[in-house]
Structures are given as C-alpha cells and as structure tokens.
Amino acid sequence: MTKERPILFNSDMIRAILDGRKSQTRRIAKEFDGLDVDKVLARFTSVRVERLNDCSEADARAEGIAPELDGWTDYGNPSCQMCVNSVDSYRALWHSINGAGSWESNPWVWIVEFRRLG
C-alpha cells in the first residue's frame, strides 16, 4: 500500500488556490522520494522535474503570487515593496519559505500542476 503524503500550503497560498490564482507548486525533489506517480496523476494534471531557477514568468504566476497595481508582491517585505516581475516576486516568496540562499542554490524541484476539485 502506498503512503499518501499531503502537500502543505501557507495561508497566502491557500487563498491563492481558492481565488484561482495558484495552479502549480514547486517542492525540492527529495520531498517526493518514493512518490507513486500514477496515484498523483489522478489528483494532479502533471508532474515534472527541473531546476528551480528555470521558473518562467508564467510558472511564477501559476505559483499564486499576488499582483499589485504596478508590479508584484515582494514577500520579503510585503508592506512597502513591490517586485517588477513575477519571477522576482516568486523568488522572494521562495526565500520566505525556504530561507536565505535557497533560490541561489538552484535545487532540482518537482513541479506539480493541479486542478482544484470541488
């Protein structure tokens, strides 16, 4: 029997899912060791592996970052800063979750694309 492993999201990302802004997530590859891909595909639309720094503008937006009037939320300092593009915003979010230097280490990550059910 395969052990199911939940994917946990912080409150900002849960709001992004509920608002329809988040449709994919990145996790460091070791977090999914032993994953039963057939079972995951029943719940997710696709799974792939790539380097974190290969994140495109479209990927960053699919990660659920929040748009602002003239840019994107700076998750490192959301009260007074904006990022000029979605990748910079996602980089700040990644740092806020995984710590300083985590983006620069450019780990292999699973990209899990999903569709909200129900």
3D structure, described in words:
The chain is an alpha+beta fold and 118 residues long. The chain has one domain (11-114). The chain has four helices and six strands. The protein has helices at residues 11-18, 37-41, 57-62, 86-98; strands spanning 24-28, 44-51, 67-68, 71-73, 82-83, 108-114. The strands form two sheets. Strands 1-6-2 form a three-stranded antiparallel sheet. A hairpin with an 8-residue loop joins β4 and β5 (82-83). The longest helix is centred in the last third of the chain and has 13 residues, at 86-98. It starts with 10 loop residues before the first helix and ends with a strand. Mean pLDDT is 79; it is low at 33-42.
Please supply descriptive tags for the structure shown above.
27% helix, three-stranded antiparallel β-sheet, single chain, 118 residues, 4 helices, alpha+beta
